Amino acid sequence: MLKDKLDHKSLINEIINIYKQELLIYKQIFKLTKDQQQAIEKKEWQNLKQIIEDKEKKIDNIEQLEAQLISYKKQLAQQNNLQLDANEFKEVIENTYQVMHRINKLEKDNREQIINQKNKVQKKMKDINTGLNINRAYDGAVNNYEGKFIDNKK
C-alpha cells in the first residue's frame, strides 16, 4: 500500500513537472511572438523567418511533452483512491493557459499586421502599375516622323 502511494505521488509529481516545463516553453514562445511582432513592424523578413522556425521547434517540444502527459494520465486513471495536490496542479495549469491566451492574442495581432503590410504592398504595386500604364500611353503616342510641308507654289 505504501508503494502505491509513492507511485501515485511520483506520478503526480511527474505530471506537475511536465506542466511546469510546458509553461516555461510557452513563456519562451510568448517572447518569440513578441520578437515576431517587432520583426513585422521593422519589416525584417529574414529575422521573421528564423523566429517562426524557432517557434515551430518549441511547439514540437510541447507536443513531445503532451505525449508523455498522455502516458502518465493513463497510468493515473488506472490507479484508485488518488489524492491530488490540487492547488499546485491548478496553479500550473492556470499559468499555462494564461500564457497560451497571451500568445494567441499576439499571434492574432501579428496576423493582422502581416495582412496590413501585404495590403499596403499590393496598393503600392497597383499604383506603380497604374503609373507605368499612364507613362506607356503617353510614350506610345510619340512618333519619330518629321513634319513635312507640301509647297504647292512650285
Would you write up a description of this structure?
The protein is mostly helical. It has one domain. Helices cover 85% and strands 0% of the residues.
Average pLDDT confidence is 82
Q: How can the largest sheet be summarized?
A: none
Estimated share of beta-strand residues: under 5%
Q: Tally the helices: what do you get?
A: 3
Alpha carbon gap, first and last residue:
131 Å
Q: SS-based structural class?
A: mainly alpha
Q: Roughly how many Å is the radius of gyration?
A: 32 Å
- Give the count of structural domains: 1
Compact summary:
85% of the residues lie in helices and 0% in strands. By secondary structure, it is an all-alpha fold.
Topology:
Blueprint: H1 2-42, H2 45-78, H3 86-141
List keywords for this structure.
154 residues; disordered N terminus; rod-shaped; single chain; 3 helices; mainly alpha
